[in-house]
Amino acid sequence: VLATVIDVAKSLEGRLDGFTDDSVAALADELAKAEIALANAPTSTQAEVDAAAAALRAALDGLTVKPAVVDKAVLEEVAAGVTALSNADGLFTAVSWAALEAALADAVAVLDDASATQSEIDAAVTALTAALLALELTEAEPEPTAPEPSDTEPGPTASGASTGDDSGKLPVTGSNAFPVIGAGLALLLVGAALIATRRRARAGLEQ
Predict the structure, then answer these.
(1) Mean pLDDT over residues 87-98, rounded?
(2) Neighbours of 105 (CB within 10 A)
(3) ∠ CA 2-34-59, rounded to 5°
(4) Which residues pair with 137 in a beta bridge?
(5) d(Cα 108, Cα 89) in Å, to the nearest integer?
(6) 62-79 CB burial, b ≥16 within 10 A, e <16
(7) Contact present, 28 and 9 (Cβ < 8 Å)
(8) What is the mean pLDDT of residues 125-136?
(9) What angle do CA 125, 131, 132 make, to 5 degrees?
(10) What's the pLDDT score for residue 45?
(11) Is residue 107 within 8 Å of 127, Cβ to Cβ?
């Protein structure tokens, strides 16, 4: 029995890269002890031989597979981008912003989970980018209606400026431009996530 267990253990030599270093080292230690016990079999008791075989079997059973290597880089980048956003000015609706915050909280939990699988990480990326794209702008206040043109020639205003065709135009302020900036940031984050995910998938195929 001991010789058979030793043969099984030796057949795994050079094929244990997928197991943790500690469990492989424990197997090597028990294998060495078992070989000594087998060599001393003529003078060893049956109990000693059986104990060596049992210890070697336990070491074989104790081989532990290394945890899968996961990539959180994409999720980290998207989460960082979302964290940088703010709704202090009420630019986005409360419902869509709350959904984004919930998705961000879930993403942070996945990032903090050392045992998170790649599928869980990818799902968090998908959920967070979907919530980002689903942000809805609050309804803008209606712009003031431009006054009807009069039949008289436009004259200078009290300040001396002309009241020509520009009287009804509003200046482009930072608040007018912010929705465009916010949407652009969202698209950049999602684009970066998609590109990084495709690169990781391509790298996996090339390995």
Answers:
(1) 94
(2) 10
(3) 90
(4) 92
(5) 24
(6) ebeeeeeebebebbeebb
(7) no
(8) 95
(9) 90
(10) 86
(11) yes
